[in-house]
Design brief:
CATH superfamily of one domain in chain A: Phenylacetic acid degradation B
Radius of gyration of chain B: 21 Å
Radius of gyration of chain A: 24 Å
Number of helices of chain B: 12
Distance between the termini of chain B: 32 Å
CATH superfamily of chain B: Ferritin, core subunit, four-helix bundle
Strand content of chain A: 25-35%
Strand content of chain B: under 5%
Helix content of chain B: 55-70%
Order of helices and strands of chain A: EEHEEHH
Number of strands of chain B: 3
Bound molecules: fe (ii) ion
CATH class of chain B: Mainly Alpha
Oligomer: heterodimer
Number of helices of chain A: 3
CATH topology of one domain in chain A: Ubiquitin-like (UB roll)
Number of strands of chain A: 4
Number of domains of chain B: 1
């Protein structure tokens, strides 16, 4: 038995989404099980199956560093503040 | 870095149960890679295993009635329903197996050995086709209500994600149930008597499905950890409020002499005898032995398929 991760997507919409996992003896059975369990009412029109052993998992700490980089965002507040300051000094 | 197949070593940890409770109370969700407290792992595993067993035993009953379903449309519906229920079992056994307490094979073998528990309603005999209608109308609805109440919070991520599909499909079963009930209710006298007899058999098991009142305060760990979002008696009461008027509306009698409306117009069930429920939890219900033996027989008969697939 191999354990597979199932991903589904509607054609032309959104991204592939994880739908669940299943055990199957071979790829052909895996595709059939996935269709009959996770796509019973055509929830997707495209499906990916990935052997769980081939899914790389990044360490959460290695992900977290990017949560502290405000310079990668810009909400426009600095420009708004400067404009307001200019208006006030003109008045 | 590791692969999804390796035992994760980088999940979250909690110093003690209070620390874990604070995480839950702050809206936290537990994922399989987390170093969850042993108490949480074993209680949640037991709950999911019970749910998985119930879906499988329920699916096997549905299957038995496919040949007896009147007409092609109902045969197709029962085929689909059987597949849905077996699918629910597949989804849940996978989530349970990934908790690392028992393998799926261990869970199945213990179920077929009569060492596991499953929902009370699958310990009774379905006598006529009308019983299947009563099961779809009453039991799928009760299962829907209790599963939806788990889905509402459900702090174990993989369980919550599969419940989304399960609850949606249970909704189809409920609507099929109402359609089939309408057919019997507006049919011949024989059909109405058939349904009344089935209702008399299935009313109490359906009410029992919600279980006795939850332990007082917050002593039920599944409520404290927000796996369950509602107390048993709250769900049971909501069910009675909804189904008593519906069944009365179709002109059927509910087998409860003490059933009445209180001063606020709420329906109050009579005192509930919990002995039949307890018997089913010991696998000592009226049809437990036959059902378990049939399921075990199917498992044994299909051993060659599993062996062939392993080649
Ligand atoms: Fe189900
Ligand atoms: Fe169902």
């Amino acid at each position: 038995m191999n354990r597979y991760e199932v991903f589904l997507k509607k054609l032309g919409r959104d991204e592939f989404r994880h739908a669940g996992s299943l055990d199957a003896a071979d790829p052909e059975m895996a595709v059939m099980y996935a269709r009959e369990t996770h796509n019973r009412r055509a929830e997707g029109s495209e499906m990916w199956l990935v052997d769980r052993r081939h899914v790389l998992v990044a360490d959460p700490e290695s992900m977290a560093v990017n949560d502290q980089k405000p310079h990668r965002h810009n909400d426009g507040s600095r420009v708004a503040a400067r404009r307001k300051e200019n208006r006030n000094s003109e008045a | 870095m590791h692969t999804l197949a390796d035992a994760p070593t980088d999940g979250r940890t909690w110093s003690d149960l209070d620390d874990f409770q604070a995480f839950i109370d702050a809206g936290g969700m537990v994922e399989p890679g987390d170093d969850m407290p042993d108490e949480f792992r074993s209680e949640v595993f037991r709950f999911i295993e019970f749910h998985a067993n119930s879906e499988l035993m329920g699916g096997l009953t549905e299957r038995d009635w496919i040949p007896h379903a009147p007409g092609l449309r109902l045969k197709q519906i029962f085929l689909a329903k059987t597949q849905d229920e077996i699918g629910h079992a597949h989804l849940l056994y996978m989530v349970a197996a990934d908790m690392g307490v028992k393998t799926r094979t261990e869970m199945l073998e213990q179920l077929f050995d009569g060492r596991s528990r499953f929902h009370n309603v699958f310990h009774y005999k379905a006598v006529t086709w009308a019983d299947q209608v009563a099961i779809a109308f009453l039991v799928d609805a009760a299962a829907f209500a209790s599963q939806r109440a788990v889905f509402a919070e459900c702090t174990y991520g993989p369980y919550k994600r599969v419940l989304k599909r399960i609850v949606a499909e249970e909704g189809f079963h409920m609507r099929h149930g109402e359609e089939m009930l309408l057919r019997l209710a507006t049919g011949t006298d024989t059909q109405r008597v058939m349904f009344q007899d089935a209702l008399t058999r299935w009313w109490w098991p359906a009410v029992h499905l919600f279980g006795p009142d939850s332990p007082s305060g917050d002593t039920d760990p599944l409520i404290r950890w927000k796996i369950k979002s509602q107390r048993n008696e709250v769900l049971r009461q909501a069910y009675v409020q909804k189904y008593v008027p519906l069944l009365h509306g179709y002109g059927f009698d509910i087998p409860d002499n003490e059933l009445h409306q209180d001063a606020d117009g709420l329906w109050q069930a009579g005192s509930i005898d919990w002995e039949p429920l307890k018997a089913t939890m010991r696998n000592g219900g009226p049809d437990s032995a036959r059902r378990i033996a049939t399921a075990a027989g199917n498992w044994a008969d299909t051993a060659w398929v599993r062996e062939a697939l392993e080649q």
